[in-house]
Amino acid sequence: MKKLEKVCTTCELGELEQEPGTVTGGLLHKMYCVQTKQGKYAIKALNSGVMDKPDALKKLEQAERIAYKLKNENDISAICVKPVNGKMVFEVDDTYYEIFEWFDGKSIFYPDITAVHCAKIGEQLGKIHASNICVEGLYPENTVRCKYEWKNLLSALKKEDAVYSILQENILQLEQWDCNVVENAAKLKSDQVISHRDLDPKNVMWKNGSPYIIDWEAAGYINPYDELIQVLNYWIVDQNQNYNKEKFDSFINAYRLWMDVKYEYWQEVFLCGCDAMLGWLEYNIQILIKAQNQIEEKAAREQIKKTLFELKMYDKQQMILKNWILQCV
Q1: How far apart are CA 107 and CA 204, in angstroms?
Q2: What pLDDT does 274 receive?
Q3: What is the DSSP letter of 144?
């Protein structure tokens, strides 16, 4: 409470009118609903573990500039931060914050995601990719990451942990998926655009049937077709993670109004299609290893189980998606 009061004072948001409320939905940071005499705001307290990484602040500020540029110059429905004295991210008492004007929308998840929602997300993604913007100081990422140390991560977990046996059973498959990504990613580096890079349902707010994209912190360069497969995986599945052809058609038809899907490296794209999921899995295993309390442990375990399930379903169904895509080429 006192920290948020100081944030409001520092940023000249006005005096608090009521106790700030916690906004649910974020997995990395804490978000609060703050009502002052001047207005209503969403204040994001950024995760210290994230912000302690080298260049974290610089990358976050670049990401917010991306959102501003896409919104103001390319008609993308982006929710952008409220600058404070020219800064998009600011520090109060060793914690970094972002401020947003309150937006009265909500996220939609399966089974409520329809073909209509998919068409609108396909349009937004296509427009972002077709914009092909540049941001000062931001350059394409031409290096390929190293393989994750799955066996070392497993050995760092307690054997009695609920997810230990699940990971142990799938360790060889994880290594194979990882190997596929690292061996094929280089071919995708020659074609990159600046984009959101985390366009899953929790990062889209809906109001009056229109989508508004939030949480731009991962924004940067990516192969557009790599991201296309990632986003399709988020949006065209049902509650059992099975692909839906009607949703796919709606999405891809809207996307193709802006971007051609003819591409010489589709095989490599599909082999790399699990990269984001592998990264999220690795991150949550690290969180579980270092967790300081049961709340962190529980959240990490849930994400590990969920992501591993999604990886298996992608591996099982990627040929279906590949055939659908190639029919559009």
Answers
A1: 6
A2: 96
A3: P
